[in-house]
Amino acid sequence: MAHPAGFGAERMADILRLDHVTKTFRGGVVAVDDISLDIREGEFLTMLGPSGCGKTTTLRMIGGFEYPDSGSILLDGQDVTDAPPYQRPVNMMFQDFALFPHMTVAANIGYGLKIAGTPRAETESRVREALDMIELPGMADRLPSQLSNGQRQRVALARALMRHPRILLLDEPMSALDAKLKEAMQVELKHIHDRIGITFIMVTHDQTESMIMSDRIIVMRNGRIEQIGSPTELYDRPASAYVADFLGTSNMVPVTVHRTGEEVVARAGDASFRIARAGSVVADGATMTMFIRPEKIRLGANGGDGNVFSGAVREVFFSGNAVRIDLDIGAGQIVMVHHQLDTALGDAGLPAAGDTVTCSVKPETISLFDSADAAAVAAVGGAA
Amino acid sequence: MTTTQMHGIATTEKLGSRRRRPIDKGTSALAVAAMSVLAFLYVPIATLMVFSFNDNPVTRLPLTGFTLDWYHKALTNPDLMTALWNSVIVGLAAVAICLAIGIPTAFALDRYDFPGKTAFRRLVILPITLPGLITGVSMLVFFRAAGVDLSLWTVIVGHGTALTAIVVTNVFARLQRFDRRIEEASADLGAKPWQTFLFVTLPNIKSALIGSSLIAFTLSFDEIPVTFFLTGRDNTLPMYIWSVIRRGITPEINAIGTIIVAVSIVLILVSVFMMYQENQKGSTR
Fold first, then answer.
1. Most buried of A43, A44, A328, B272 (most Cβ within 10 A)?
2. Measured between CA atoms, how close is B181 to chain A, in angstroms?
């Protein structure tokens, strides 16, 4: 808002701004803690986190179902902080869809138009178009109770899009669907987003879903934003052990750091790893937690490209398209290696338990995190 | 129809082939018990209906012949018809009071927290458990003290007081099961609060409103103790019947009783049908 018009015009314009938004529920539970955020026009943004991290409350404040205790919400530059839902050009697809049980599919989809005073004939033709779009043309007179969950979801989507909202909010849109349908709908919803160009803000606790669908992901923790970025940024360059742990699987290895000038080496067991992105705060002799994605570790020395280390194979797990190999790199420290299979398992020439193997990992794929934070994340992860 | 029958036959056969013999004695005993219960409940009403068509002016066996005279007499008896209309008016007005007070009360209990809420809820529901005698006497004292003349209006207020709890409890129970998110969805789609109430909330609590209105109307319709203390010169139907019956049961009373039973059955069927439809719609939640 502080920028004069035209400033930074090559960037997508911001459609929504949350400015130091805080929400405390009765009993003193701080659901959302001083969040500031700019959302770009047309992007698919996902708020990701475990239950209780404040993502749903944030979404509901954008929709107008909750009001912040402090801070403000600006939509297209207009302050909508205290505006009721019916005055915001924002629509929501509710978890479990919240279809009107006493209305037909057509009446559900046309409800927003009826309320807006759209002429009946126009409403009818637009509802027909919508039913064609969601591929339920013969279902106009059914009641929601007569539909499958997948069909209900389509109706809820059509209903939320009928008023051409500036932003579509999606609250755990896939939670009612089974695994197969979920995958299909994730792709379909992304296609719909790309086609209609409306800004989507989704809430989910499913990290795979968030990575498949989103342009940007906000990882939330205890009512605060832990990290914002594209799926690849978050996956490859997590800012904290919490983010690393939440997205995908990771090795979290306790290490001792040795620093000589710019060169940083982490030691764990009998192995040592050069770190490319250590940051200047890492002190010589510090105990930290090293983060490596299991699939970034390659079997074999790979011509000395990167860190080469060896370990004893403890166990090998077969999971169809890949194997997981648990390596003991000394002092009982286990490192997981994900090895993608491009041949049949028998032809892959994989090591067996008890073998010693050499592996390599590139320095730039390794991060170091504060040990205390990593321990806290591990404790929570173990409980959940 | 055929499928239902076939289904029924199939079930019987399956049961029968497996456990026909052991169930036989038990079944007949159960049937006798069930019939006895039904007889206990409905023989008096059936008796009333049968005698309303009997041409003997004295209500006693044997039956002497069929007639509709008593219906004609009942429907042309000005005192009886006045009493009937008084009862209908009192019932409708009492239901209106119950709804006007009961709906907002139920919403307040469901949606808002306020100091003394629990006590408030108990106190609102209390009058339904108070004997009519207590309500009648206390309201009589109150009206006298306030200098209000007794009339059908005082009866209406009395019935409204006693029966509001029925609407409150029914609507409150329905609201507790009500998915508030469909109201949020309505607001989200642009509906102002009154539109949401009219188009979304009301249709979904309709069955509770109709059901509790029917119960309240029925209870008001045959209410005697409160009416007895609070009425002026006007008679309601039960008061009229009671005063006439002291001079002997007339077939006219049987006739009007039969009409009331018939109307009640229709109303009950209507309300059951509506509840059924509502359940069909809401079956996913």
1. A44
2. 6
- Residue among A255, A249, A248 nearest A285 (CA): A255
What is the per-residue burial (b if ≥16 Cβ within 10 Å, else e) of A34-67? ebebebeebbbbbbbbeeebbbbbbbbbbbbbbe
Retrieve residue B145's tokens: 């003290």
The mean-pLDDT minimum among A196-200, A204-208, B246-250 falls in B246-250
Helix (H) and strand (E) counts for chain B? 12, 0
- With CB atoms and an 8 Å threshold, state whether B282 touches A145: yes
Could you report the predicted ipTM of this complex, rounded to two decimals?
0.82
Tokens of A318: 């077969």
What is the model's pLDDT at position A10? 44
φ, ψ (nearest 5 deg) of residue A12: -65, 145
Q: Do residue A86 and residue B203 have CB atoms under 8 angstroms apart?
A: no
Please tell me the CATH code under which domain B72-282 is placed: 1.10.3720.10
Using a 10 angstrom Cβ sphere, with 0-12 exposed, 13-18 middle and 19 or more buried, the burial of residue B41 is exposed
Mean pLDDT over each residue of chain A, to the nearest integer:
87
Range B254-264 burial, b when 16+ CB lie within 10 A, else e: bbbbbebeeee
Which of B189, B203, B285 is the closest to A111 by Cβ? B189
Rounded to a whole number of angstroms, the distance between the first and last alpha carbons of chain A is: 40
> What class does CATH assign to A14-241?
alpha beta
Contact residues on chain A for B189, CB-CB shorter than 8 A: 86, 91, 111-112, 115, 159-160, 162-163
What token pair was written down for A70? 């402090």
Instruction: Please report which confidence band the pLDDT of residue B1 belongs to, taking 50, 70 and 90 as the band edges.
Output: very low
Put simply, the answer to whether B281 touches A143 (Cβ < 8 Å) is: yes
CB distance A64–B192 less than 8 Å? no
User: Which positions in chain B touch A92 (Cβ < 8 Å)?
Assistant: 184-185, 188
Q: Do A101 and B282 touch (CB under 8 A)?
A: yes
B179 touches chain A (CB under 8 A): yes
